[in-house]
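Following up on my earlier thread - several people asked me to post the actual chain instead of describing it. Fair enough. Here it is, all 455 residues.
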Amino acid sequence: MACPTGSYCPAGSADSTPCPAGTFNTESGSSSSEACVACPGGSYCATEGLSAVSGPCEAGYYCPEGSSSAEQNISPPGTYSPTGSSSPTLCPKNTYGPNEGAEDAAACQHCPPGYETQDTGASSTDSCTEVICDPGSYRDLEVGCVVCAAGSYSDTQNAAACTPCARNTYTSIAGSTACLVCPDTAYTWGEGTDSFDKCIGPVIEVCTEKDMGGDCGRYYDDNLQINYDILSLQVVRGEFEVYTAPNHGGDYSLVTETDGPLNVEEIFNSYDTDETKVLSFKPILNDVFCSFEKGENFRGSFRTTASNGKPCLNWSDTPLSDIALPNTYCQNPDGSADEPFCYTSETETSPCGIPGCLWDIICYTGIGAEYRGTTSSTEHSKTCQNWETDWPHPHSYHGDKYAWAGIGDHNFCRNPDKKGTGKTWCYTTSLNPYYWWDYCDVERCNRDQFDFYKL
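Reply from S.P.:
Thanks for posting it. Predicted structure:
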């Protein structure tokens, strides 16, 4: 007769020997105790002579391999054991389990808001310590420390929130403790800028060899003297005046982004000059990156959506197709608006939010020939005379010949002596022979005192 399941029969034995509690044997005819298999973890074998496991371990307890009771080991504090557990599960980080015999994760209690554990398996609130979030993150009372996203920063421990980068600054790195400043000649549309490429301003790439070869570098501002020879260049964004001598001297030419890559000798061929090197350059900002006056001459090519986010229609599909340039950039072709705008449907228009220019509006550059501000008083507190009148002082600077200098029916300071020297001035209404004309109370533009853009 074969030895029954749940037991084994050694050679020469008249009777079968039952497998001990904690084991079982599904096979008949076994001759060795090795046929008795340990009850697998998560289950138990309660009695001798079993041919199958008795059942799963009870919730709140865990049963290692070879267990003989459904309540073999009670789950200790800091852990929980669902039905059929072979080992206890540690309470997750930032929680603690104060009681033994926990059946599921719901028994693990959260640390108080603003506190955390350093590891899993905490058994009391003594293991919960105050959260210390480093700069570059903020403290969330529910989840702990959260890294600041690109475009934001925090510069203190346990910040309540990350701060968006201020306008004209950016950071492309998550976890930043500060934002970087865009070039002086650039700005951003708003706060929270997450990339240097979103700093809107002039960009020029210059190279030491022809055909954009050799060592190349990008510039975003004036450069009065390059310390190496530039033989090729490309305006990436905007417009630049490039010069054949340092300090914006020598011959110059206007280069725009639509020109593409150029060898310097090509740029100056029309000037009949032997100079083939660019030694200084400066960007054009007014009416390219900001709206000068009402923006009737605005030619910036970086804005193709209205300030409400809607895409601009091509001007060739609008009622102003006969006077506007055929593109999708913001314009003010007929001067009817106060700033550049675009059509977002066949009948709907919207402003583009182009910043206003400040240089040559609140201060003057060069000798003041480009100044278009509204100051009408002089350094000696005299009131300016209207340019279209000859009283009390007759003169020849009238709008019919000097409109290019901003002369017109007003008494604002100007300088129509384009090839002269000096700064903004005007004829005065004073009868004092010493002040029949006077320099105006307008400051020279400098970037330490005046911003480029009205944002």
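The first helix runs from residue 264 to 267. That should answer part of your original question.
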